[in-house]
Amino acid sequence: SSGTPSYYRVLVLGSSGVGKSALINQFMSSENNISDEMSASDSTVSVMLDEEESLLEFCNFPDDQFPEEDINVDAYVLVFSIADRATYEYANNLMRYLRNDVCTDRSIFLVANKTDLVRKRTVDKNEARLCASYYSSKYVETSASLNHHVDNLLAGIVTQIRLKLNPD
Ligand code: GDP
User: Fold this and answer.
1) Is the ipTM value over 0.90, yes or no?
2) Ligand 1, atom 10: nearest CA belongs to which residue?
3) Does the beta carbon of 145 lie inside 6 Å of ligand 1?
4) Closest C-alpha among 54, 39, 53, 45 to residue 12
5) Which terminus has fewer CB within 10 Å in the chain: N or C?
6) 137 inside domain
7) In this structure, how many other beta carbons lie within 10 angstroms of the beta carbon of residue 120?
8) Is residue 1 assigned to a domain?
9) What pTM was computed for the model?
10) Residue 20 beta carbon below 6 angstroms from any ligand 1 atom
11) Counted domains in the chain
12) Domain that includes residue 143, residue range
């Protein structure tokens, strides 16, 4: 449908160095992205999905802090590196905190980044997937460097936000 696109805010969280900026940069140059100089900020991406446009604003957050409430947030993207076990534990803590303490029912994505570092993998895919499903979250493996599955993640975020807002 035409008309004003929906505007969604996505908070990207995770340890320093896991590839949050790299992922956001890939979103900005995604095939789906048709945004131009009209976009509201540097981290706003226009996504065309099912003939409907959505504007996603990707917000960074201090790497060592947890958000206290989820006002104005439509989805969370929790990023870790498959090559760094500690970043997975941190993402787990964020997940538990968001569901149990913030009590958010927003969409959460657990994103295993740096899948190109195959030989350095320290986080098992099934283990991470189980964690995500335990917390009613989606699990995606990406490589921001190779632009692998980054478009899937972007489309998945829009799909999940729309499902939450319009469950029928
Ligand atoms: P941030 O601190 O979470 O924003 O992490 P950055 O996006 O700044 O990335 C930290 C480092 O990891 C940089 O050197 C990136 O080039 C690198 N990096 C990001 N994504 C990937 C990836 O998918 N694979 C590999 N091998 N390196 C990555």
Assistant:
1) yes
2) 17
3) yes
4) 45
5) C
6) yes
7) 11
8) no
9) 0.94
10) yes
11) 1
12) 6-165
